[in-house]
Every structure is written in structure tokens, then in C-alpha cells.
Amino acid sequence: MPRVLLIEDDRAVREGVALALRRQGHDVAAAETGEEGLERLRSFRPDVVVLDLMLPGMPGLDVCRAMRALDQTLPILMATARGDDVDIVVGLEAGADDYVVKPVQARVLEARIRAVLRRVTAAASTEGGIPKIDTYGELAVDRAGHSVTWRGVPVPLAPSELRLLLTLSAAPGQVFSRQQLLEAVWEHSYHGDARLVDACVGRLRAKMGEPSREPRYIQTVRGFGYRFVSP
């Protein structure tokens, strides 16, 4: 039973969303503030977090950053009261894997939760049961073990970051449009959500030590999307 930590200050929204998630079979812990949410994170050990962006006291963005400092791989879904591009991009850059716009529709939230959990648990392809580890210069991608190392040092990646790297590196040199990556990684079909791709590429490059102007591995194809280049 997937465990969901819901952090939402509006009591009516919190209770309504929690009820809807429980009806879908989730074990739900609810918190009213960011501080309470961080405490519940340690004791409840959720599989995914649904985090309201606008919180009293500790802002949602700070909560997201604090959670990422504690656990780089924990899936975080951000809930925002506005579909404002700036709010969404800032939240994604803070480490959120995905987002939903309030008022939250139960079916949309459930679909996003299922999708992000699939990114965590989906088994990568192997040949004959033998783990497949691909090496690209100083970067090693373990497709079976879902782990990445840079110069022998493990690189902790959030679910969306790992899935994006696996998708791009599986076909070096191939150019992927933002829409293709959106559908492959996030399982979305909305063109407006291309900002998910751009924010995730930025986080992934930073973790891999990629220079922003001349990235070595993940290159931007202007006006189209991205491609992975093997040194």
C-alpha cells in the first residue's frame, strides 16, 4: 500500500484530498505545516509526498529543499494554487518531481502519484538477467540497479532525473523533443508541461557537474529538445 505524506494547510482541502487518497488504497499521513511535515517525514517514511506550495510559517519551497537534503530520491509532487509559470518553475528547480494545480482533481493527483511511483519501481531492461551497466567517459549508468556514478562517486537522483537520464542515454546522439521526453518520463500529454523537462534537465546537469554553457553529456537542440552525447 503506497504511503503518501500530504502537507496542506487548508483543513477542508487536506481532509478532502486525504479521503480521496485513502479511497484509492493509500496509507495517508497529513500535516498542516511544513515543520510538521518534516517531522512526519522522519516517522512515517512515505513513498511519495504531496506538498502545498503556499504554506504558513516555513514556505513550501523551503520544505521541498529540506526534504531533498534529507532524501534525494523521495518523489515529491508540488501542489500550487495557481498555474503560474514562475511558481511552477521555481518549485521544480527546488527539487519537485511533478506538480498539480489546485483545486486538485482526485483522478489527476492519483494519476501523477501512480506515474511517479512507476518511475521509482520500474525495472530497467537487462539481457539474460545480467545487469546492464553503460559507461560514458567518467559517467556510469547501471540500468538494472537504477544507480549512477560520476568518477566512481554515486550521484543521488530524484525519480524523474533518473528516468530522464535513462531515456536519453539509451539512445546516444538521438534528438528527443520535449514532448517525447514528457510522455516517456512523466507520462503527460500536455504541451504546456514542457517546463518539467527543462527544469529536470537543469537539475540533472548540476548534479553531474555539467557546465551550463557547454554541457558535456546532455546537449540542447535549440527549438526542439535534447540529446545525450557520449564522449
TrEMBL record:
GO terms for cellular component: cytosol; protein-DNA complex. The keyword Transcription regulation applies. Residues 3-117 form the Response regulatory domain. Residues 131-230 bind DNA. Coiled coil: none annotated. The modification 4-aspartylphosphate is found at D52. One of its GO terms (molecular function) is phosphorelay response regulator activity. One of its GO terms (biological process) is regulation of DNA-templated transcription. Keywords: DNA-binding, Phosphoprotein, Transcription, Transcription regulation, Two-component regulatory system. InterPro entries: CheY-like_superfamily, OmpR/PhoB-type_DNA-bd, Sig_transdc_resp-reg_C-effctor, Sig_transdc_resp-reg_receiver, WalR-like, WH-like_DNA-bd_sf. Pfam families: Response_reg (PF00072), Trans_reg_C (PF00486). Residues 131-230 form the OmpR/PhoB-type domain. This is Response regulator transcription factor.
